[in-house]
Amino acid sequence: MKVAEIIIEILIGIIGLSYCLECSGEDCTSDPNGPLVNCSLLSDDFIHCDPPIDLNGNVSAKQLLGYGCVKFGGSRYGEVETTSVVCRVLSGIDCFGNTTFFKTNIPCIKYTGHFFPSTLLYSLLLGFFGVDRFCLGHTGTAFGKLLTIGGLGVWWIVDIILLVTGNLMPSDGSNWNPYF
Fold first, then answer.
1. Measured between alpha carbons, how far is 26 from 65 in angstroms, rounded to an integer?
2. pLDDT 10s digits, 70-91
3. HEC string of 131-152?
4. Which run of H or of E encompasses 84?
5. Global pTM?
6. Count of CB atoms within 10 A of residue 30's CB?
7. What is the spatial distance between Cα 48 and Cα 99, in angstroms, rounded to a whole number?
8. 33 near 21, Cβ under 8 Å?
9. Which helix or strand (DSSP H or E) is residue 155 part of?
10. Taking each helix axis from N to C terminus, what angle separates 154-165 and 116-126, rounded to the nearest 10 degrees?
């Protein structure tokens, strides 16, 4: 052991600092007064995470892997499944611990560019012609709505009610995009 390492170990014992000279994994602790933080505690601005894995309803695959989404979406908090995803620290960012790690409690939600306000406007203004259902991907019922001119107005009103109550969603199972 070098003299400097012995002095540092004595200081660590006296002062009570947890300082490590060589970090090899997350077992190593950092100097609380130092500039480095644990890689798994970095904000989303400094890491890149893979999207959640779609298991297409395969529950046994989730049990085997321990992560992944059996189903995507949900309009209420309790309906949304969560999973873990693999995250990596961006290059040029210094931190201690593993630079590739799992981030937990990521919601299984897909956004595909469907906006609720624009869809509601389509339904109010052009719902007689089925434009709202075309935009949501329900092409079969959209053609039916178009040919019957909104079911002579009844289907048009029912679709507005379904849209407002959250029962008419995009056909791909995605959620409404929260940003404009």
1. 22
2. 888 776 778 888 999 999 999 9
3. HHHHHHCCHHHHHHHHHCHHHH
4. strand 82-89
5. 0.57
6. 18
7. 11
8. no
9. helix 154-165
10. 170
